[in-house]
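Two quick folds needed for the group meeting slides. Do the first one here.
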Amino acid sequence: MRKVLLPVFLTLVGCMPGHISDTASRGFVQESSLGLPPLKSFSLRPVSAPARSNIDIARDFLTLAFELESGRQLPVFTRFEDPITIRVTGVPPATLMPDLTRLVHRLQDEARIDVSLTQSPDANITVQAVSRAEIRKNLPHAACFVVPNISDIGEYRNARRSARTNWAQLRRREKLAVFVPNDASPQEVRDCLHEELAQAMGPLNDLYRLPDSVFNDDNIHTVLTGFDMLILRAFYAPELRTGMSKRQVAAVLPGVLARLNPQGETLSPARTSPTPRAYIEAIQTALGPGTSMAKRRHAARKALDVSRSFGWQDHRRAFAHYAMGRITTTTDPDEALRHFQAADQFYSRQVGTNLHRAYVAAQLASHAIGQGNGTRALALANPAIHVAEMHQNAALLSTLMLLRAEALELTGRSSEAQLVRLDSLGWARYGFGSEWAVRAKMREIATLSP
């Protein structure tokens, strides 16, 4: 399931399999009544193949396919063995079907999965759009989730503690349900579709060691990446089938990856170490809901301590600094700045972390604006805007554009600032949804400037 985390933009401004143990999981108005421009949306665009060794990818595949987030082992490999059909029920928001149609096209084209939309009640996957309150009534910390052998959320309530919905006891995928919110922002609904449908068809696990995947609970990537599409394509390779053991899959997987990702045969493996439970639980406490600020700070510091004790120099160390920066932003801006700078330094040492650095750039640019340094803020925001657009993150994109507008004001370019601010609003409507949320974001950023 996609977990509910504190928002990731500026100050504390995003799906996991059945009870955190074993289930998989992540109003909108088209026309504005208050004069905001129409919302914008992203078109299909190509994604890059993963720039990693097939040895590492094979290891990741096996961990994703044969473990749940709780660490529980899955005895056999499962997938759909026949063409997959998807239907939509409930009360879907206006953006759901266009975004779902684009996603299905990508799954057909990039992952080579035989999947299509239908209105038949016999569909393999039912996407049911319900309220966030209904979702949290069933899984309090979920933004959305997926379960096997179910087609309606009412049906799930009566079966959620039974073997029927237990992923560890599943031996064949035939019918699943994905529950997404119908009163969240368009981007959150889209993000849920990407993560939950990927889990419905493929891996049920999430790994913090993956820098380039939605199969990672840091919620940095929100749409399926080139790595994710490769994993899904391998999931449905003819060499694999439902019922295979981990050893059997491991025996044929190198050949599958060599055929699907030949460039991965030429790269040296990084052999990134596993992520201990202590780090995972600390990050979830630091950024999850329902925790006091003192406990958040303690948990973020623990994540940093774990990172240091393992000698990590990768995105996990950076993310622990980023979490600490977010938590200390309002109480100790200077400490927060040091953590954001450290996060950027660690991210800069690793290939494939441009999106991660764009998040950090938003924090650093907001600090520069608060200091009245528009030139520095522009230098940070401008390249990050392109990265956010390439990764189809409208919330981050609009945030960065609003920061750019404030920076332009500080440098005396008010006319240009107004154009950038206006252009940001269509993306903000997709990223943040309701008009009050868009206007609150505008006010939040406007108050940064001295």
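Then this one, please, same format:
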Amino acid sequence: MKNKYIAIEGNIGVGKTTLAKFLANHFNGSLLLEEFAENKFLKLFYKTKDYAFHSEMQFLLDRSLQMNTFFDQDHPIVFSDFHIEKSLVFSKMNLSKSNYSIVENIHQSLFNNFPKPDMLIFLDSGIEHISKNIKSRNRDFEKDLGIEYLENLIQNYNFWLDKLKVPVIKIDAQSIHYDNEKLLLENLSSLLKSALSLGF
């Protein structure tokens, strides 16, 4: 059986990390979590809307190092709370055409040889639910994110999903009950069947 790689994506605060941890535990898989705390440019961007290019460049370098280390080991099953192409989704929205072109070229150079996800789980959610979750987790650098920015991000994610060449499973994030494992497995039944069809 060849290795399996499941990525989870969605807007800010929809529960990507929680779901990735749950599935990794359920399938006894390896967990690849997005590391963002050290990206000081990201915090400045969220606060001032400056440093967008710096933030994306830092993201590319950080993820490159992280994935080099991670995929240096064998992982029969991988669950990740991000798809590496998310940097292009954010870059297309936040950067000028010339800076986006730079990021796109560097992205291809850095990540072209890494394993690609076999399937994407996309957590869909309305703005009200997203805003509530962002406030609940209380990260200082996310407090200044406005509704317009989050709505724009949803639109850009949808453009990206339309062009993605791997199976995509969309799930309503509000239908997932993380405090009840039995109910969560019931709500994710279609997801689990799709995972099984990939050879799990």
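Slide caption for protein two: The chain has nine helices and five strands.
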